[in-house]
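Structural prep section.
Before we set up the soaks we want a predicted structure of the protein with uridine-diphosphate-N-acetylglucosamine in place, mainly to decide which crystallisation condition to try first. Input record follows.
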Amino acid sequence: MRIISVVGARPNFVKLAPVAHALAKRPGVEHLIVHTGQHYDALMSDSFFRELDIPAPSVNLEVGSASHAKQTAAVMERFEGTCVELKPDWVLVYGDVNSTVAAALVAVKLGIKVAHVEAGLRSYDRTMPEEHNRIVTDHLADLLLTPSRDAIATLKGEGVPEGRIQFVGNVMIDTLIRLRGRARGAAAKLGLPEQGFVLVTLHRPGNVDDPATLGVICDGLAGLAKDRPVVFPVHPRTRARLAETKGLGNVRLVDPVPYLEMLSLTESAALVVTDSGGVQEETTFLGVPCLTVRPNTERPITVKEGTNRLIEPGEIVEASTLALELSGSPGLRPGSGKARSAPAIERWDGRAGERIAEVLCDGKRFT
Ligand code: UD1
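Run finished without errors. Recording the tokens verbatim:
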């Protein structure tokens, strides 16, 4: 059996790793990786392949950055030739980025079966490009591999036949569990006290593309940084926009950090302020308080069962102060860190990649 995984952007790589490792153990399975080149900087791509022990891609489509239509079209045009040449039995696509929907559309039209890893997530926010990518990909795919039980109901509610849906669990958490032990010490390296700083990541167009919204966010972060260290690894999209704003006070801006450093920073933070999907899940798994600067989330389980809370851009200072008080992390005293309790979410257990291999190779069902 020949399986092609298509990945393009940073969060895809984290989801691919456990699937690649599980499939590598299967005799008779040839697993090839196609990198679309959507993310291409060393810090956004190469470092992830290295740290996560992902085999080198067999093909790089080198599409790079462009408008949504151009980027999606470039993946489609280039991936079609790859599919025709390699004739895979399955194409696996991950998450909700432009590369995901583009590859899925190419494969189904060539009669190749498509499996969507991280299926069934919905924000119900039609202004998010990812929401369209999720919906279209789920309705193209032959096999929908969901990270949480609520996604099954969502898909059934949209008319997806039950036989196509399998509840395999959360692959991103597989990677976290595997590498957690190796990811210590990043905070100390940056001189940040354990559980004594706030970690920030923001890159959504809804937050960073509109100067007025970004201005409100910058004011909030600068206010927060008056009383405690705030560290902000900056995504290239955000970096370009920040250059046009009035500044961030004492906030410490750093380049995008590799996976292990990000995991270590997340685990050591008193609080995380983000708009990333993956970070909402990682903080929930680790029991780290998280404020998500978005009006909605496609991962409601992190709010219902986890540590996540949705806030508006203007609420950053007030919500952070409250979250720090409630969590008992004063955010100021070095060494004040304490053990955290984290919720146990069903099938966020480090075995999702194995389950995907069992579905594809052994015909197992996970309901
Ligand atoms: C993409 C995904 C988003 C995901 C994010 C993770 C879509 C629609 N969006 O958003 O869902 O959360 O990845 O990071 O697919 N750039 C670089 N170097 C790179 C990559 C990008 O400098 O290696 C810059 C370019 O100026 C580019 C901008 O970042 O225009 C945005 O990149 P793009 O891939 O279009 O979307 P992201 O914002 O990264």
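Observations: Residues 9-11, 38-41, 44, 65, 96-98, 129-130, 203, 235-237 surround uridine-diphosphate-N-acetylglucosamine (CB under 6 Å).
Flagged for discussion at group meeting.
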